[in-house]
Structure formats: C-alpha cells, structure tokens
Amino acid sequence: MTWLVTGGAGYIGAHVVRALLDEGLEPVVIDDLSSGHRGFVPEGVPFVTASILDGGAVEAAIRDHSVTGVIHLAGFKYAGVSVQRPLHTYQQNVTGMATLLAAMADTGVEQIVFSSSAAVFGAVDVDLVTEDVAKNPTSPYGESKLIGEWLLRDQAVATGLRHTSLRYFNVVGSGSSEVYDTSPHNLFPLVFDALLEGRAPRINGTDYPTPDGTCVRDYIHVADLAAAHVAAARRLEAGQPLEPAYNLGSGDGVSVRQIMDAVARVTGIGFEPELSERRPGDPPRIVASGELAARDLDWAMRHSLDDMVRSAWDARRASTP
Length: 321
Description:
The strands form four sheets. Strands 3-2-1-4-5-6-11 form a seven-stranded parallel sheet, with helices on both faces. It has a three-stranded mixed sheet with strand order 12-9-14. The protein has two domains: about 1-170 and about 220-245, Rossmann fold; about 170-215 and about 250-320, Alpha-Beta Complex (UDP-galactose 4-epimerase, domain 1), CATH 3.90.25. The longest helix is centred in the first third of the chain and has 22 residues, at about 85-105. About 40% of the residues lie in helices and about 15% in strands. By secondary structure, it is α/β, with parallel strands linked by helices. The chain is globular and about 55 Å long.
C-alpha cells in the first residue's frame, strides 16, 4: 500500500513519513515547501514539489506512484494569524481539501486520514473534551478544520469515501534529530529561541484558576501522534471500522509553568521566566480525552514531559550550526 502524505515535509508530516517507513509502508510526499523543509524527508522517498491547490499535480502524483490512500496534513495552521488572513486560511484549508478530494475521486482513491485540530472546539468550559463536545471554533483556522471534517462526511455519503479525522492540541518533541519544530508561534521553539539568545522565556498570565496559576494544555509527543496516524491508515487498509473523528488527548494536561520547570531541568539552564499579562482569549484549561483513540488506534502517551523536552532540545541543538 502506498500512502500520499500531503505536507510531508513539515514537522508533523515528516514524522508521519518516518512512521510509515518503520511500518513497512510506502510513503509519497507532496509539499509546496511554504513551511516545510525538503531536508526533513528521508532520502529515497518520492517527493513532489506542488501545492494541493494544484489538482493536476495531485492527480499526477496519485497516478504516477499508484497511491492507494492519503494522509492529509498540508494546510495553514496558525490560528492567531488566521484572524488576520482569513481568506488565505480558507483557500489553503478548505479549497485545498476540496481539491484533494476531487483528485482522489477522479483517481479512485477511497481512503483518507485527516490531520484535523482541537481548534474545532473553540473555548470550552468542560474539564475533559470528548469527541461529542459542541464545536464552536473561535478562529478561521478552527472553522476551516471543521469544514474539512464536513467535506469528508459529505463526500463519504456521496462516494463511499472511508475516512477519519484526528484532533489534537499541542504537539512537541522530536522522534529524529533531523526533524524539529520550526514554527515561529509554538511554545517550545519560542522558549528555545529565548534560551539560545540569552533571554528569559515568557509566561503569559499567572493568575488563572489552575493549580499554579498558569494555563493548562494538552502536550503530546510528535512520535506518538505520528504512530496514531499510521494506526488509522492501517485500519482503513484492513477495512476495519473507525469513528469519524478521534481526540488525541493526554487526559490530564500540563501547565506552562510545568513546561518551564521541565525545560530548566532538562537543559541545565537556570532561568526565571518573564511574567506577563494574560493574552486575550486564552482559556485557563483545555484538556482532551484519548479514550476512543486508545480503544481503536492504540493511542497512548508513551513519552514523559521530560522526554518531550529532551527530544525537542536535542533536535533543535543538532540543527544549530
């Protein structure tokens, strides 16, 4: 079986490619390199430099490499920036999904794993987010991911498409020294940038109704996330039943202060974080349940917080000249 990985040169996508290879499956990558890196893709993996908005290129990639399934990770993922760039976000994430699905239909590919987002839920007021919690996205990014799930649902009704969507919050760590998070908006890169530049990392808000006053979030290791994508692909291959969507959650979460403490502990760099005001719209706690994914996708938190920090720090330092 050959799986087309859209966005396979990105931080998460490149880990999915490696997980497929580890399972003896054959990945093909399509990526426009707008945020991905060609060097993240292992040598020998077929690589197509193109946008998923180019339906002809997607069709050609599917036909040329006898693709039998798609793992869809390509997209514009910055929730905050999406508020300033809604049209770009919808073009990349909604038109991109529609174009991909059209190419799949035209080439007879009938199975897809969609890398969705917990942003579909928006600001929640429950202790544990389950799959059936109301969807009220608060950004164009979250809306575009929810529309992507709707497109899969509707295409399944129309054509029998077999699909599942994986939702998650904060992805950290590294499963390979060759791949690291290069996002300018994610917590770990921001903290590491500050430390490498001799600055103190910042905590935004210390007066939340949480045990230590800082926000609590789900942080999951990228290798665990990649394994879940491959498990979903395997079940689709085998014709086994899958839920329309799964939350890949930790069930308990960690606070920003706990992240900072772990970074200091693992790196050996003593620092006192700069304390700042709350950011507008940041909820005190968002943690998801992973029970359904544990049942069907062998989902588990296989890495400790220190594992997450250490692997991310080692990969980041390996990339620094």
